[in-house]
């Protein structure tokens, strides 16, 4: 079952007509000509669509809060600041079918009553930003963007904002801070951005993959979409397989699929590379949990499952790998990307990185063992934003799974 | 182009600071103090505000970098593509240590994921990004920079 990737092979990303031939912008026309904004919000609510960025918040509910907030100005932001290790799904959507994102963004902006939409793209995705710029220009010529869209009274302006290389700017409030021209440090929530966001106005921040689902939902109705996949998190999701798996790349699958199937089914991963033996998998990028071989049968959904889906990346690690390299990789990543706003995270990730370096060089100090426990507890429980918790996840799991072995 | 000319491309609203900072850092490689002051004057912001934004982001430098920085991706996907072996190979070739500042011309660092997982392992030297680097071929890449 594919929703997002179905039309990709038939689409020329630089040509809007090829997208229109695949029923593109039909949903936008339907929305603007036939549906009042409230109806679109309730359609998305009925679909049960959850945010594909990682947290899995109900998109419809987010939109409803923003739509109900009285404001003279509202903003709608597409979050394409993808920088989770092992994740490149949003980059692929932008490369293969940029209009899917633009159409979703326009419908969203219309539904909540935003006149200004912004695509916040990772500063390193230079080619993809160019593709999106071309897509926006073409859509403007077709009267999908600008003043009086399709002859109606709806005005929506779309612009692209290129980031400057900071992982934390994928967090919605840090993203907003950086658009305002400040350091990309997260804000205290609540108030949530849907009430008080960019320039203090009601703002929606949605992941690019979430928005790519919107045209399909509007075309086929929310009820129909809610029947696809798992009952608590309907729809399909782009999974990214990497590591020791035979077929690497992006695969679209229904939510509720198990990691077992994704890794070993020949439709997706097709098992491990020849001569390699499965050790463990990391689900959800650098902030993801480690899954041992015995636990691969847990369905991947949002909310109620043991192993959060995160960004949807699945890294397969085989027995020839050195766990210390991975520990250094995780600790180094979170040390580099910590924004420095709160002490537990700034210091904790730094000390964890130092210990990881000592472990990789084979001379850990006697106190490192207990210090790691302390640091991980502090990161998981006391940081300002979830970043600290993410930094502790993989390490905690590695200690649970491998115990004292990793300190030798 | 002079600093003023570049700045005039942007409306003097605080929300354009990051855009202006990026634009200036692009042409000059790093932001000097006088450039930061010019930005602060143009946007009517305290100099500290401009510095705080400029120093936060990876893609903007506020100090002149004397050494060539070699960055190897350490994301999970590149790691399973043997990026640590690439690190060891460079360490041997340049007689350098990861993260150490002792070498007069080079510094070797790990970098965060660039989203090139399908084309990894990735290696970055200055503005150039190399994809699908192998431990066996990395010598040839480095040799061009000696």
Structure description:
The complex is a heterodimer of chains A (408) and B (146). Chain A is an alpha/beta fold and 408 residues long. Chain A has 3 domains: 8-226, 3-Layer(aba) Sandwich (Rossmann fold), CATH 3.40.50.11540; 236-318, Ubiquitin-like (UB roll) (Roll); 323-407, NADH-ubiquinone oxidoreductase 51kDa subunit, iron-sulphur binding domain (de novo design (two linked rop proteins)), CATH 1.20.1440. Chain A is 42% helix and 13% strand. Chain A has 15 helices and 9 strands. Chain A has helices at residues 16-21, 26-34, 37-47, 59-68, 89-96, 98-112, 126-141, 172-179, 208-220, 222-226, 259-264, 323-337, 343-360, 368-382, 387-402, and strands at 74-80, 116-121, 157-162, 202-207, 236-243, 249-254, 278-283, 289-292, 313-318. Chain A has a 5-stranded mixed sheet. In chain A, strands 3-2-1-4 form a 4-stranded parallel sheet, sandwiched between helices. In chain A, helix 3 (37-47) crosses helix 6 (98-112), helix 5 (89-96) crosses helix 6 (98-112) and helix 14 crosses helix 15. With 146 residues, chain B is of the alpha+beta class. Chain B has 2 domains: 3-56; 68-143, Glutaredoxin. Helix content of chain B is 42%, strand content 12%. Chain B has helices at 3-7, 17-28, 33-43, 47-56, 76-80, 83-94, 138-143, and strands at residues 68-73, 106-111, 123-125, 128-130. A 4-stranded mixed sheet of chain B has the order 2-1-3-4, with helices on one face.
């Amino acid at each position: 079952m594919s929703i997002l990737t179905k039309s990709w092979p038939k689409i020329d990303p630089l040509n809007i007509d090829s997208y229109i031939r695949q029923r593109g912008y039909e949903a936008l026309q339907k929305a603007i000509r036939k549906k009042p904004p409230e109806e679109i919000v309730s359609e998305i609510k009925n679909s049960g669509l959850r945010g594909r960025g990682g947290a899995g918040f109900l998109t419809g509910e987010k939109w409803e809060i923003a739509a109900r907030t009285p404001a003279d100005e509202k903003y709608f932001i597409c979050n394409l600041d993808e920088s989770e290790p092992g994740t490149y799904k949003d980059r692929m959507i932008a490369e293969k079918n940029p209009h899917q994102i633009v159409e979703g963004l326009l419908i969203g902006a219309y539904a909540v009553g935003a006149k200004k939409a912004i695509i916040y793209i990772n500063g390193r995705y230079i080619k993809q930003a160019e593709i999106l710029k071309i897509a926006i220009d073409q859509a403007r010529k077709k009267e999908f963007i600008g003043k009086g869209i399709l002859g109606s009274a709806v005005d929506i302006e779309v612009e692209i904002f290129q980031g400057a290389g900071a992982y934390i700017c994928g967090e919605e409030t840090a993203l907003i801070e950086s658009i305002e021209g400040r350091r990309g440090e997260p804000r205290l929530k609540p108030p949530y951005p849907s009430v008080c966001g960019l320039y203090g106005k009601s703002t929606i921040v949605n992941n690019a993959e979430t928005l790519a689902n919107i045209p399909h939902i509007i075309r086929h109705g929310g009820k129909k979409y809610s029947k696809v996949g798992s009952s608590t998190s309907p729809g399909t999701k782009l999974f990214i397989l990497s590591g020791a798996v035979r077929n690497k790349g992006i695969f679209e699958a229904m939510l509720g699929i198990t990691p077992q199937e994704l890794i070993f089914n020949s439709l997706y991963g097709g098992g491990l590379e020849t001569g390699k033996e499965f050790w463990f998998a990391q689900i959800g990028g650098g902030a993801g949990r480690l899954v041992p071989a015995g636990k691969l049968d847990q369905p991947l959904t949002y909310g109620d499952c043991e192993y959060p889906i995160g960004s949807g990346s699945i890294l397969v690690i085989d027995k020839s790998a050195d766990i210390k390299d991975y520990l250094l990789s995780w600790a180094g990543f979170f040390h580099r990307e910590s924004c420095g706003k709160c002490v537990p995270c700034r210091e904790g990730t730094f000390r964890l990185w130092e210990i990881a370096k000592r472990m990789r060089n084979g001379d850990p100090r006697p106190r490192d063992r207990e210090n790691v426990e302390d640091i991980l507890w502090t990161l998981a429980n006391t940081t300002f934003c979830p970043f600290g918790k993410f930094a502790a996840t993989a390490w905690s799991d590695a200690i649970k799974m491998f115990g004292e072995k990793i300190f030798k | 182009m002079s600093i003023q000319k570049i700045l005039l491309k942007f409306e003097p609203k605080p929300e354009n600071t990051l855009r202006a900072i990026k634009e200036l850092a692009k042409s000059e490689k790093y932001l000097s103090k006088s450039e930061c002051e010019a930005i602060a004057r143009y946007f009517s912001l305290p100099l500290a505000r401009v510095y705080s934004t400029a120093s936060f982001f990876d893609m903007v430098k506020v100090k002149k970098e004397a050494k060539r920085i070699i960055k190897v991706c350490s994301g999970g996907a590149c790691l399973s593509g043997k990026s640590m072996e690439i690190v060891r190979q460079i360490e041997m070739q340049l007689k350098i240590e990861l993260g150490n500042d002792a070498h007069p011309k080079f510094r070797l660092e790990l970098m965060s994921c660039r989203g090139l997982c399908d084309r990894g392992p990735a290696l970055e030297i200055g503005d150039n990004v190399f994809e699908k680097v192998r431990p066996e071929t990395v010598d040839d890449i480095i040799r061009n920079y000696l």
